[in-house]
Design a protein that fits this description.
The protein is an alpha/beta fold. Helix content is 50%, strand content 11%. The strands form two sheets. Strands 3-2-1-4-5-6 form a six-stranded parallel sheet, with helices on both faces. The protein starts with 7 loop residues before the first strand and ends with a helix.
Length: 284
């Protein structure tokens, strides 16, 4: 179904991801109509300018006759947006969300009295520290895989349409379960940001010009949007807590090895970690 002729695409949320989707649509599907809706009229106007055939929608009702709709609002509001869109009368739009915590969003939709056949949970695995549209880029949609996490409620046709649209945008799609996604993101994104916020909070009395690049490099992620990350930490708290428990065990293990008179075990553990990250970098 990759040859579907998409005539009308909706976009709810005009932040970093929404702006990036608009920019990619401008490159891949410049002739389709793009309807942009956001709580901030300024952000909506900014993102609408990224696409040659875009207009601003003051409400979501106008998006009902779209072929597909991306929902790229903060994770705390995605569920409500999805329920409202799925409840639009006579709408056949396939709806793809972009939240970085899937289970919370899916459970929110499941608890509502709506038909979720047209809902395809998703998440592009690229982003940035900035949360606003000013740093949006079409590459964000294509530089890393776009994960789809269909549920038992997701219709096969809706999944095919979502794949076809993302394929036309040039995105590589990967399917996994919602829980597998949330575990992956807890380890690969949410835990590193949690560590950054914790690290940034314990060196406030140190001379800023003396703090090494290693500290700055890790703590830099604490420069991310705080409301967004508070929402993410809450939405994926169970998986993040599990990842944090494993991380604490590893920290304690390495610290205990540093007390040993002979550094054999410590060196072996550090070398194994280095080999793992070297292999990861080589894969990319």
């Amino acid at each position: 179904m990759s040859n579907i002729d998409f005539q009308r695409i909706g976009l709810v949320g005009a932040g970093l991801i929404g702006g990036s989707i608009a920019a990619r649509l401008a490159y891949a599907l410049p002739d389709c109509a793009l309807l942009v809706h956001d709580a901030s009229p300024g952000n909506a106007a900014y993102v609408a300018e990224r696409h040659p055939n875009a207009s601003i929608s003051t409400g979501i009702a106008a998006l009902g006759d779209c072929d597909a709709i991306f929902v790229a609002t903060p994770v705390a509001t995605i569920g409500d947006q999805l329920v409202a869109l799925l409840g639009l009368p006579e709408s056949n739009a396939v709806i793809i969300d972009t939240g970085s915590a899937k289970r919370a969003v899916i459970d929110h939709v499941a608890a509502a009295d709506v038909d979720a056949t047209r809902f395809v949970p998703g998440h592009p695995l690229a982003g940035g520290i900035s949360a606003g549209p000013g740093r949006s880029s079409s590459d964000i949609v294509t530089m890393r895989p776009f994960v789809l996490t269909p549920t038992e409620s997701t219709g096969a046709e809706a999944l095919d349409v979502a794949k076809a649209l993302l394929n036309q945008l040039g995105a590589k799609t990967v399917e996994m379960t919602p829980d597998a996604h949330d575990r992956l993101l807890a380890l690969g994104s949410h835990l590193p940001h949690l560590i950054a916020y914790a690290l940034a909070g314990i060196a406030t009395d140190e001379p800023a010009d003396l703090l090494p690049a290693s500290y700055r490099g890790i703590a830099a992620f604490a420069g991310s949007d705080t409301q967004m990350w508070a929402d993410i930490f809450r939405a994926n708290r169970e998986e993040m807590q599990a990842a944090l428990t494993e991380f604490k065990k590893r920290l304690d293990l390495i610290a205990a090895m540093a007390d040993e008179p002979v550094p054999g075990n410590l060196l072996e553990t550090l070398s194994d970690a280095k080999a793992r990250i070297d292999a990861l970098e080589n894969e990319e």
